[in-house]
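Summary of Year 1 activities. Much of the first year was spent building the evaluation harness for sequence design. The harness presents a backbone, in tokenized form, and records the residue chosen at every position. We chose the following record to illustrate the format because it has been used consistently in internal testing since the harness was completed.
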């Protein structure tokens, strides 16, 4: 099992940047594909980004491509999401997730979840 704890959320003005971080417990972090999802009230949790076991491959939703960057540090058991040029449409609770088997864009592809961190972008 792995436990995930997100940090770095907050309030930022449109056009600004935030960096989210997710710390994972356990000694097998490098065996998990890591992803970020986000959710606003009344809507489904949506895929944002994912990164392969080694960090060599990354995947993004069309809505964040070119603005967000996902990275991981297997030595520190962390995954980060650098978010630039934020807009009000990025306001959501952001969740870190871990998958054992494959990279996916559906929430059902992921086995473990953090509790989320709120990102609010003011216009």
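For this record, the design step produced the sequence shown next.
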């Amino acid at each position: 099992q792995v436990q995930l704890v997100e940090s770095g959320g907050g309030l930022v003005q449109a056009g600004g940047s935030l960096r989210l971080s997710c710390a994972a417990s356990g000694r097998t972090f490098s065996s998990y594909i890591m992803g970020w999802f986000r959710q606003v009230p009344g809507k489904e949790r949506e895929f944002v980004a994912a990164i392969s076991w080694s960090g060599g491959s990354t995947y993004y939703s069309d809505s964040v491509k070119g603005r967000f960057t996902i990275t991981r540090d297997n030595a520190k058991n962390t995954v980060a999401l650098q978010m630039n040029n934020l807009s009000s449409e990025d306001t959501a609770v952001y969740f870190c997730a871990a998958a054992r088997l494959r990279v996916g864009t559906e929430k059902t592809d992921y086995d473990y979840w953090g509790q989320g961190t709120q990102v609010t972008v003011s216009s």
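The mean pLDDT is 96. Quantitative recovery figures across the full test set are reported in Table 2.
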